[in-house]
Amino acid sequence: MHTGKSMTGGFDPAFYESALDAFTANVAVVDATGEILAVNDAWVQFVDFNDLKIANHGVGCNYLNFCDRLGTPGAAAVAAGLRALIAGGDGPFRHEYVMPLDTGSCWVKLSAVRVGHRDQPFLIVTHDDISIQRRAELGLREATARLLHAEDSERRRIARELHDSTAQHLAGAKLMLRRLDAKDPVSTGLVRDEVSGLLSSALDEIRSFAYLLHPPALEHLGLAAAIRQFATGFSRRGDVAVTIDIPDDFPRLSHATEIALYRVVQEALANVHSHSGSQQAVVRLRVAGEMVLLTVRDFGSGLPPRRDSIPGVGLEGMRLRLEFLKGHLSLRNAEPGLALEAWAPLLPEGED
Ligand SMILES: Nc1ncnc2c1ncn2[C@@H]1O[C@H](COP(=O)(O)OP(=O)(O)OP(=O)(O)O)[C@@H](O)[C@H]1O
Ligand SMILES: [Mg+2]
Questions:
Q1: Which ligand has an atom closest to residue 317 CA?
Q2: Per-residue pLDDT tens for 199-209?
Q3: Candidates 306, 315, 322: which one to mutate for ligand 1, based on the most atoms within 8 Å of Cβ?
């Protein structure tokens, strides 16, 4: 501990020295006038590390005057809080603020308590660096905004399809019905066939939208069965043959994990179809220690060397879904093709 002028009264440096140096937070002992009497090792290291030009690491300076001189709203709030404590107000006083440093701004949480005799109080002031926590909170907020944006884009895509395709089939069917002429059996037959075709197309589209929005198999049968079902339909509809590699005893997972991994399979296979040129894909699901690993591999072109600076909704959506579960997405060119790996914590069913 680094101490200044000799202290009298209730403050005993020998007593506090070892205790304060044990703290990882920066700690200063301040007297009733605001003068810094002592600082701990962490404080000294903080001042040195950030190359702050503060004489004697602040010992002997007046903390309250320093705050007054800074004149920022944060410093004014700190000075007012400390003065109220010295005057006998209830503690502890806490305040969070941004400290501008040459090395980049740092979020600080200040706490102060009053100790010592009522006639000669001291303040113990601690500064905790909460930048990591703050950045994580900000990161989560940004991720939420991006996820909402991705969801919104997906809804717009569906809305556009419903409007431009399904609704057109239905509108066409309605128009055809107006042309029905009971006295002309030939034209009636033609109209009926055309209306029937339009209604079937609209029905197919609505069914596949409903299925995409909420696959019923997922809830009832679980992820493994839902992936098998989806892949079978996908292979049948398109030109990519999908091989499934999932152990028979693959467990049920938490609902959020099953939904997220299912969406990853949907998006990844859609990408194989749209971008890879591969006619084969393998979907593999494994428990790997405390995690679940989903791999979707194709044998096509692999990722282009430089992707568009504006990412598509697909990969971004997958990444965000996994990050929300504290998992992650990794993409690697597998010569040939792309190996997409989605990692999620192994949360058993019911643990959402
Ligand atoms: N399996 C793949 N093989 C080759 N390139 C791929 C593959 N998957 C993705 N890509 C590349 O990555 C880009 C981004 O994919 P992403 O799914 O994010 O967007 P998108 O498919 O272009 O559009 P969206 O999914 O929003 O309809 C694609 O445009 C493509 O260039
Ligand atoms: Mg895509």
A1: 1
A2: 999 888 887 77
A3: 315
